[in-house]
Write a structure and sequence with these properties.
Two copies of one chain form a homodimer. By secondary structure, chain A is mostly helical. Chain A has one domain: Winged helix-like DNA-binding domain superfamily/Winged helix DNA-binding domain (Arc Repressor Mutant, subunit A, Orthogonal Bundle). Chain A contains seven helices and two strands. Chain A has a two-stranded antiparallel sheet with strand order 1-2. In chain A, α1 packs across α3 and α1 packs across α4. Chain A is elongated and about 55 Å long. Chain B binds a DNA duplex (30 and 30 nucleotides) through α3.
Chain lengths: 148, 148
DNA sequence: TATTATTTCTATCAAATTAATAGGAAATAA
DNA sequence: TTATTTCCTATTAATTTGATAGAAATAATA
């Protein structure tokens, strides 16, 4: 029961993108990769998925790059993780009961269903903006420390 | 973010074991495997892990088999899943911050920490007995239907 | 218009993890 | 002594994850 690197890297990159884009100037994948210590090529895949899910806007060509498609407070963490790891369900039968003949009467399925719901609830109740604000206040605290 | 077959099969087998053991008579792995449509050999491994975690008692030799080590209401689902999948944490750095140099200031780590806690909370608040009771009442309802 | 810098797309490879099988040793009751 | 069961150790198979390579598309720039 782990979040894959796609989900982890993607979430960090979305925060990075939000913090480092000023106005309508797109951010290069290569810059995000450098700052986050990630492979540029792998990050391309990740942004492909984010783009497909409508979370980022791409500008092709020279001086192109990526921008957030929506405001950070309108992007839930559930959207980001779903874009990168697929729908959140701890077992297949939660989404698709037909794959198992005993799904209807299976008590463990109900359990996994309930837990999957909790996870969804948690990730839906937090937005990208929450993480950005946390990050910013953390950075500010670091800076402030030099003045004390 | 999925529960592995070990966790899924193991949980179902624990319910099966609890329901099908009468008194101190141990239950054969081969019988559980048949009822749950699982490979006998694979199930041996799963019971090895459950045994190691102190959740089941084994009796070796002819007419041997397995018994629950504790009462079903004393076995949390968290214990079962942890025995089969290891400690519940969505990312490694939640359990071991030293593996990442930026763990201390990482906001996504805090997020995964929070979600892992929720999952643990959920699984700790349900016991094997809860599932057994659900299962039994479900079976009874099926039977009752014949009399209507 | 030609060139260059950049993203996007597709195909593929490598590594790691998970799932399952196999064979036989050890234990024990009949 | 035999049949039955758990236990132990390898090995193989399958799946998922992580990463790479290069061609195609596109927009800025010279």
């Amino acid at each position: 029961m782990k979040i894959s690197t796609k989900g982890r890297y993607g979430l960090r990159s979305m925060i990075d993108l939000a913090i480092n884009s000023s106005g309508n100037t797109p951010v290069f994948i290569s810059d995000i990769a450098k700052r986050q210590h990630l492979s540029e090529k792998y990050l391309e895949h990740i942004f492909g998925a984010l783009h497909k899910a409508g979370l980022v806007r791409s500008i092709r060509g020279r001086k192109g790059g990526y921008l957030l498609q929506k405001n950070p407070e309108e992007i839930t963490l559930s959207e980001i993780i779903t874009a990168l790891e697929g729908k959140i369900s701890l077992v297949e039968c939660v989404l698709d009961p037909d794959i198992c003949p005993s799904a209807k009467k299976c008590v463990t399925r109900d359990l996994w269903q309930g837990l999957s719901d909790k996870i969804n609830e948690y990730l839906s109740s937090h937005t990208l903006n929450d993480l950005i604000q946390m990050q910013k206040s953390r950075e500010q605290n670091d800076t402030l420390m030099y003045y004390i």
